[in-house]
Amino acid sequence: MDSPLATLMSKPAVRYGLASILALGVDFVLTMTLRFGGGLSLTLSAAIAFIVTGIGFYFIHEFWTFRHEASAVSTKRLVKNLSSLATAFCARIGVIGLLEWLHTPGVLAASAYFAAGAGVSFTLNYLINKYWVFSKG
To answer: What is the pTM of this model?
Structure first.
């Protein structure tokens, strides 16, 4: 009989949540480093960080989040994943860009703008990955 933790970790949504927390941390730190350490706009910083983090996390999703017995690097899934990332990227950068256009943010507002964009993009990215990129069909 599986332990409660093993049962919980067998669910792709739980694994996606954990991977997302890690990805969000990397993404956020990189975004804020580029924004406040590199002097780039928040929108450009978020765009660069999203691309770097998104490509790296394809492999985590392939081999852990949505794993199944046939998991392997797949050109077809990689292309689908990049399509999913492009959709999530447009949503996130659109939200952040709009908010930044309305008001140039300081540190606190930049974090709120990042959170708003991340919420929209995570939702889209999860749904696209689960039902299209890593579907078993």
So the answer is: 0.77
Extract the tokens encoding 105: 């943010």
CA distance 80 to 76: 6
Q: How far is CA 117 from the centre of its chain?
A: 10
DSSP sequence for the chain:
---HHHHHHTSHHHHHHHHHHHHHHHHHHHHHIIIIIT---HHHHHHHHHHHHHHHHHHHIIIIIT--TT----HHHHHHHHHHHHHHHHHHHHHHHHHHHHS---HHHHHHHHHHHHHHHHHHHHHHIIIIIS---
pLDDT in tens, 103-126: 999 999 999 999 999 999 988 878
Taking only the tens place, the pLDDT of each residue in 26-42 is: 999 999 999 999 999 99
Dihedral angle, C-alpha 101, 107, 112, 113, nearest 10 ° = 30
What is the number of other CB atoms lying within 10 angstroms of the CB of residue 118?
Answer: 24
Say if residues 115 and 58 touch (Cβ distance below 8 Å).
no
Determine the Cα–Cα distance for residues 119 and 99; give it in Å rounded to an integer: 14
